[in-house]
């Protein structure tokens, strides 16, 4: 009996250690704090991502709204050269040393030349800087080139493209100021950005802005005023492509794209008529 009591006393005298309730509480509190911080970080990250996604979506909606809508028909003009002969010629030779610039204007072999004064016409066989050689004039009063007679050359290709645009409903205003908008012309042979000019001469004679294989564009305000285009405004774009090395001829598909500095682009595509006319309405 005494031996058993002694064993118990010896056991109680040993340095036995254990975790107290206070320590357990501290550990649990630490776990809770860490979990709370982690949860807060996760929630904040999620909110930030949602806000970024919303901002991106809003930016996309704004960009999509900044667009134009075609208004009315697209009208093409045939490339033509007109003027007056400077000296008397023959039934196959016409000369205009005053305003003639036939190579610069893009006159080509195969184009039709007409003597407006006497009503005759012929097909061009040779193009020089200020003279045209053709087969014999026919169908007119005299069938010969005299001095001071009016001529007209049908180039059988497109000179200018005109079309009108207006902002789409709900679109954000944007600028058409020089340098803020790009106009590109594309067909089976050409793909280039047009050069902006405040005005483009469309009459006969040499084009003072002409550069080989270069397109030009300008715009005219029909409703409203620039440089910003707002809802209800109507702007007419004119693209001059007569100086392209490979012209836009009949039965050919083409596209004109307007790319503003902000917002989405507008592309207008059409196909030229099989037979060229002075003015062509493509609807």
Describe this structure in words.
The chain is of the alpha+beta class and 283 residues long. It folds into two domains: 132 residues, Immunoglobulin-like, CATH 2.60.40; 76 residues, Elongation Factor Tu (Ef-tu), domain 3 (Beta Barrel). Helices cover 22% and strands 36% of the residues. Strands 1, 2, 3, 4, 5, 6, 10, 11, 13 and 16 form a ten-stranded mixed β-sheet that branches. It has a four-stranded antiparallel β-sheet with strand order 9-8-14-15, with no helix packed on it. The longest helix is centred in the first third of the chain and has 45 residues. The N and C termini lie far apart (120 Å). About 7% of the residues have low confidence.
Write the layout of secondary structure elements.
Elements: H1 2-13, H2 21-65, E1 68-84, E2 93-95, H3 102-105, E3 112-115, E4 120-127, E5 131-134, E6 150-167, E7 174-175, E8 181-187, E9 191-193, E10 195-196, E11 216-223, E12 228-229, E13 234-240, E14 253-260, E15 266-271, E16 279-281
Parallel strand pairs: 10-11
Antiparallel strand pairs: 1-6, 1-16, 2-5, 3-4, 3-6, 4-5, 6-13, 7-12, 8-9, 8-14, 11-13, 14-15
